[in-house]
Amino acid sequence: QKEVEQDPGPLSVPEGAIVSLNCTYSNSAFQYFMWYRQYSRKGPELLMYTYSSGNKEDGRFTAQVDKSSKYISLFIRDSQPSDSATYLCAIFNSGGYQKVTFGTGTKLQVIP
Amino acid sequence: AAGVIQSPRHLIKEKRETATLKCYPIPRHDTVYWYQQGPGQDPQFLISFYEKMQSDKGSIPDRFSAQQFSDYHSELNMSSLELGDSALYFCASSSQGVNSPLHFGNGTRLTVT
């Protein structure tokens, strides 16, 4: 079992829909959580970074962390065709040398 | 804002040749990570450097080596290239002291023929 599990999709939604992307993790030592967006043939682009349970909002994006359930989510409101990409969750421990563990990524397609 | 710079963007090599990939981290970032990403796969961690010392090692083949220089840029050297080495190679940087997130470059696409 991978340390971080993510549904690979693909996920197809109509423009304007609310998108929910999710990851679960098994290592309770993980404390820092990131969401990346990756367009084809491009590097992962950091969308959200959080280290506490609860919600963090940035524009149309909301990151949610539930450490008790080891579950993280990314919500995209009013989804746009330009949001079509692969979304990767990434998690790491605190202190020392960071070792980042990635989910496998969810491919999202927003249909106009 | 300055981002992570990788060069070259594309590289075509033949089997058994050598390749060198370069990474210039975001200014004041002291940690560099190298990842390999095959088609449809998540990034696989190869190796990382903190303050010019190797800090962690992942699934990096013995044919590969890397180092971080005094100006914090890093180079990934790949020898005896194999067809299976064809992939996107990403470099990421962060600042260790504040548990900052990783910022990625746009990668080098290596094709081995």
Task: Lay out the secondary structure.
The complex is a heterodimer of chains A (112) and B (113).
Chain A (H helix, E strand, L loop, with lengths): L3 E3 L4 E4 L4 E7 L6 E7 L6 E6 L3 E5 L2 E6 L4 E6 L8 E8 L7 E3 L3 E6 L1
Parallel strand pairs in A: 2-11
Antiparallel strand pairs in A: 1-3, 3-8, 4-5, 4-9, 6-7, 7-8, 9-10, 9-11
Chain B lengths: L4 E3 L2 E4 L5 E6 L6 E7 L6 E7 L2 E5 L6 E5 L5 E5 L8 E8 L8 E2 L3 E5 L1
Parallel strand pairs in B: 2-11
Antiparallel strand pairs in B: 1-3, 3-8, 4-5, 4-9, 5-6, 7-8, 9-10, 9-11
Keywords:
heterodimer; A: 112 residues; mainly beta; six-stranded mixed beta sheet; five-stranded antiparallel beta sheet; 0% helix; B: 113 residues; seven-stranded mixed beta sheet; four-stranded antiparallel beta sheet; 11 strands
Textual characterization of the structure:
- The complex is a heterodimer of chains A (112) and B (113).
- Chain A is globular, with a radius of gyration of 14 Å.
- In chain A, 33% of the residues are buried.
- The N and C termini of chain A lie far apart (37 Å).
- In chain A, strands 2, 4, 5, 9, 10 and 11 form a six-stranded mixed β-sheet that branches.
- Chain A has 112 residues and is mostly beta strands.
- With 113 residues, chain B is mainly beta.
- Helices cover 0% and strands 50% of the residues of chain B.
- Chain B has no helices and eleven strands.
- In chain B, the strands form two sheets. In chain B, strands 2, 4, 5, 6, 9, 10 and 11 form a seven-stranded mixed β-sheet that branches. Chain B has a four-stranded antiparallel β-sheet with strand order 1-3-8-7, with no helix packed on it.
- In chain B, a hairpin with a 6-residue loop joins strand 4 and strand 5.
- Chains A and B meet through strand 4 and strand 5 of A and strand 5, strand 9 and strand 10 of B.
